[in-house]
Amino acid sequence: MIRLLLVDDQALVRAGFRALLDAEDDLEVVAEGTNGREAVDLAGRHRPDVALIDIQMPVLDGIQATRQIAADPALSGVHVVILTNYGLDEHVYAALRAGAAGFLVKDTEPEDLLHGVRVAARGDTLLSPAITRRLISEYLTHPPPGARGAELATLTRREREVVALAARGLSNDEIAARMVISVATAKTHISRAMTKLRARDRAQLVVLAYEAGLVVPGGG
């Protein structure tokens, strides 16, 4: 059973999401909140597998709430998925840097929402290749301070290759097929790279790959 926390300041939005999620046999909404402060408190109290958090809320916004959840070692198993009305707006990149596992647009198709929740729960990045390309563009337009290039020296050649593929939006299965290795081996490379680069999850690994210059626009 995948346990979910749902945080949004609009009651109708929460009700709609909850009805959809609770109708699934493997999904359960264990708590609801109305602002970022409640998101942090409820995450600590319930330890959900996935926290669906609106990006714009009173008291504490979704980015700040995500940052606090990600900074708490006791909540390392909580995968934050940001909910947004506008797709890749100016806040989403900051949310990923803060520790979000990905994001969903609120008007996404129901089956895509359910798939996204399950993807996040198993620790995969909730970013499509199209979104990945837009993230690269956003990074080039507004590069974050502090390059991480030096840390790439700690990665093996295979780890660098796996990180580059993950940063382009490939899943573990797709990485394994591309590199002609087992899925388990692909997961191992990803895990080791995350440890070396001090990335909380695959989404942060993607962002770090951009910062370090491992992924460049137009790269194959």
Automatic annotation (TrEMBL):
Keywords: DNA-binding, Phosphoprotein, Transcription, Transcription regulation. Residues 148-213 form the HTH luxR-type domain. InterPro entries: CheY-like_superfamily, NreC/VraR/RcsB-like_REC, Sig_transdc_resp-reg_C-effctor, Sig_transdc_resp-reg_receiver, Tscrpt_reg_LuxR_C, WalR-like. Residues 3-121 form the Response regulatory domain. The keyword Lipid biosynthesis does not apply. SUPFAM superfamilies: C-terminal effector domain of the bipartite response regulators, CheY-like. Pfam families: GerE (PF00196), Response_reg (PF00072). GO terms for molecular function: DNA binding. The keyword Transcription applies. Gene3D superfamilies: 3.40.50.2300. The modification 4-aspartylphosphate is found at D54. PANTHER family: TRANSCRIPTIONAL REGULATORY PROTEIN NARL-RELATED, TWO-COMPONENT RESPONSE REGULATOR. This is DNA-binding NarL/FixJ family response regulator. The lineage of its organism: Bacteria, Bacillati, Actinomycetota, Actinomycetes, Micromonosporales.
